[in-house]
């Protein structure tokens, strides 16, 4: 009996000791984790602040090239909205250290209204600041509304593989009339105004409605063509019948057609033409804490994935 008690006491003490050691290891691991987290937090703040100083400090004497990015869909609620792009352009031109401005474009297009707002503002700023050159540099894609904006610059530079053009207007829809008939569904559409429901996908097409849409699209297309002619002038090869057909071209072919000027990059244009190698991006960005939170969440996710597989920090 005494031996059994003694063995039980030893086993209990052993289990308690092992539990204590395990708890100490766990506490140490979490302690290291939180120290690491705090270090990463401070490091992220310092890195972001340093980046902001390097990219946005405009107090130095050296002239810089101002960058304004037009990325993605051009629409009122996107990063490439007229409101955001125009605000950036104004800030870039107003800065005393700006030697030149580059609108860097990577966009498939979007709203013709938003694109026209930006184009008109580019034209206005060029007149207001005649000593500050305004160039457009295309990365991957500059189509439709993106090209509409580009022609507002003095020159357009591309990569050999950039895609340029798509000078046209499109409106698409579907027709489900026969589908409804097969399903035995009756369409009930009530309007005030005889053409209020025109091009309804559940109703048969009417010739006068189609003609109206074609006229509308042609008007928008003519506006687009006039803007391109105004911006590019005699550089355009107007003898090419497909120039305004909606086709897109690779960079080198676009140069031959007069749609763009040369093959070059942002850095090269800043160095060789603007004579100011320092680049300062005036495109609105998320604030410091939003970017810091994103970096921190990524770091925490990586740590959790690391710890999940039993690795000891």
User: Could you tell me the strand content as a percent range?
Assistant: 5-15%
Q: Report the uncertain regions.
A: 48-59, 300-313
- Distance between termini? 45 Å
- Give the structural class: alpha/beta
Assign a percent range to the helix content: 40-55%
Count the helices. How many? 9
Describe the structure.
Strands 1, 2, 3, 4, 5, 6, 7 and 8 form an eight-stranded mixed β-sheet that branches. Strand 1 (64-71), helix 2 (82-94) and strand 2 (98-107) form a beta-alpha-beta unit. The chain is an alpha/beta fold and 313 residues long. The model is unreliable at 48-59 and 300-313 (pLDDT under 50). The chain contains nine helices and eight strands. It has helices at residues 2-56, 82-94, 112-128, 145-150, 177-183, 207-232, 251-256, 266-274, 288-308; strands at 64-71, 98-107, 134-143, 155-158, 163-165, 248-250, 262-263, 279-281. Helix 1 (2-56) packs antiparallel against helix 9 (288-308) and helix 2 runs parallel beside helix 3 (112-128).
């Amino acid at each position: 009996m005494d031996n059994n008690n003694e063995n039980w006491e030893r086993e209990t003490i052993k289990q308690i000791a092992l539990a204590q050691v395990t708890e100490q290891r766990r506490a140490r691991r979490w302690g290291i984790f939180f120290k690491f987290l705090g270090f990463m937090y401070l490091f992220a703040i310092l890195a972001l602040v340093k980046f902001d100083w390097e990219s946005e400090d405009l107090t130095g004497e050296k002239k810089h090239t101002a960058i304004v990015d037009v990325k993605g869909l051009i629409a009122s609620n996107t990063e490439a909205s007229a409101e955001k792009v125009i605000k950036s352009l104004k800030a870039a031109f107003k800065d005393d250290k700006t030697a030149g401005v580059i609108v860097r474009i990577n966009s498939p297009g979007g709203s013709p209204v938003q694109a026209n707002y930006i184009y008109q503002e580019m034209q206005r700023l060029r007149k207001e600041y005649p000593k500050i050159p305004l160039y457009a540099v295309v990365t991957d894609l500059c189509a439709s509304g993106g090209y509409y904006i580009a022609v507002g610059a003095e020159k357009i530079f591309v990569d050999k593989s950039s895609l340029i053009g798509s000078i046209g207007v499109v409106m698409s829809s579907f027709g489900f009339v026969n589908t409804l008939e097969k399903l035995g569904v009756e369409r009930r559409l009530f309007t005030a105004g005889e053409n209020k429901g025109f091009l309804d996908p559940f109703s048969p097409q009417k010739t006068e409605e189609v003609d109206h849409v074609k006229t509308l699209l042609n008007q928008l297309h003519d506006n687009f063509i006039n803007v391109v002619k105004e911006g590019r002038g005699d550089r355009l090869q107007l003898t090419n019948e497909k120039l305004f057909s909606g086709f897109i071209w690779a960079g080198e072919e676009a140069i031959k057609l007069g749609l763009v000027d040369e093959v070059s990059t942002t850095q090269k244009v800043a160095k060789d033409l603007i004579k100011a190698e320092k680049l300062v991006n005036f495109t609105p960005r998320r604030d410091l804490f939003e970017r810091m939170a994103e970096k921190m969440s990524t770091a925490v996710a990586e740590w959790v994935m690391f710890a999940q597989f039993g690795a000891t920090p």
